[in-house]
């Protein structure tokens, strides 16, 4: 049995095909500009999301809502995430 590492359930061949089509449609000279624009858009979205989270937390604390529950849940999720990364790391090293 051969296991392949996939990104969003897309194999390497499919990613290469998508890149080939993108080069054919946009041209090699436009791809860096498009990637830069996508990166800036994603950064803007991340900043907006962080601002919204900050405002919600600030408003909750201002109104006396206990936010320690969310911190506990976040700690547990981070712990599970670390355990999962440790587990998948050992699997990746074996193959």
Automatic annotation (TrEMBL):
MF terms in GO: protein transmembrane transporter activity
Gene Ontology cellular-component terms listed: TAT protein transport complex
Single GO BP term: protein transport by the Tat complex
Transmembrane parts of this sequence: 6-28
Domain of life: Bacteria
Pfam families the record matches: TatA_B_E (PF02416)
Compartment list: Cell membrane
Topological relation to the membrane, as annotated: Single-pass membrane protein
InterPro entries xrefs: TatA/B/E, TatA/E
UniProt keyword terms in alphabetical order: Cell membrane, Membrane, Protein transport, Translocation, Transmembrane, Transmembrane helix, Transport
Record text on subunit structure and interactions: Forms a complex with TatC.
Family: Belongs to the TatA/E family.
Function: Part of the twin-arginine translocation (Tat) system that transports large folded proteins containing a characteristic twin-arginine motif in their signal peptide across membranes. TatA could form the protein-conducting channel of the Tat system.
The protein's name: Sec-independent protein translocase protein TatA
């Amino acid at each position: 049995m051969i296991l392949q590492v996939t990104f969003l359930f897309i194999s390497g061949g499919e990613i290469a095909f998508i890149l080939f089509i993108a080069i054919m449609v946009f041209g090699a000279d436009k791809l860096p500009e498009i990637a830069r624009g996508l990166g800036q858009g994603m950064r803007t979205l991340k900043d907006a999301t962080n601002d919204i989270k900050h405002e919600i937390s600030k408003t909750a604390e201002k109104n006396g809502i206990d936010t320690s529950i969310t911190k506990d849940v976040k700690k547990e999720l981070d712990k599970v995430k670390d355990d999962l990364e440790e587990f998948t790391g050992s699997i990746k090293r074996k193959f």
